[in-house]
Amino acid sequence: MQIDLIETFLDLCETRSFNRTADRMGITQSTVSGRIRALEKTLGHRLFVRSRAGTELTTEGLRFAPHARGLLHGWTEARHAMGDSAGAVTIRIGIQHDLVNLHFSELIGDFRAAMPDTAFFFEADYSAQMCADLTSGNEDFAILFSPRYHPDLYFETIGEIAYLMVSTETGRLAEVRRETYILPHFSDAIPHLHAALHPRLATASLSIGQNAAMVALLGSLGGTAYVLRQSADELVRDGTCRLVADAPPIPQPIFAGIHVRNRHRSAHRRLLQILRARFGPSGPSLARRRVG
Questions:
Q1: For the segment 134-147, what is each residue's pLDDT rounded down to a tens digit?
Q2: C-alpha pair distances (Å), 36 with each of 58, 66, 70, 147, 249
């Protein structure tokens, strides 16, 4: 079985468009069609039906989809296993950008102390890409803000952090200017929660999706924005900003994501235990102080 046929099939399952799959995979539409025909010939069943309404999976296509995801995941795991040096066990972990500077070195220390014979590969990313990488097997574990629910993935809430409003201009919410306000977009849920809390500010013209970039803009351009509690403390302490004390904090849950095949593996259970201890309500991290 050629793995590119499986990858094309699974992408088409998502897009339901031969044109869009061709664009996403960087190939021609005729190549997509050829791969699907080859896969259908190998399986002896038609997998898609094309009509004016779009492209839909047949009953056989729906039945094959979970097996295709399993084939791709198994292939990726096998490829990584062959590439590991000296037979060492490697766990590939994706982590949300905004969590990298939040007790990250301590977290790595916890992981290495618990599993000294394991090699860890960390990559900072956004939630959507991490979920895609978990599904394909390109990552083994993810620490993220926005789960993309999928039949092959398991998510668990491990804690919570908070974003606070700071300003170079004022310490009162009523005096915050929309013209110099920067909208937070640190996760999929935050814009909706923010719009409910601050409808007057929801039409600001600038939006940022990363805490480090938000802090940098406040330092260079000034204005008002939400930043991580730790960043807010630092900005207030060095005199760059004032805390907008009457602006409610915005909470952000932290999730762990795992492929369902790995959910009960001892290494992954150990990682979950460490993360619960680090980000949970009784853990050493200050990241999850309750807001209210």
A1: 988 889 999 999 99
A2: 13, 16, 18, 30, 50
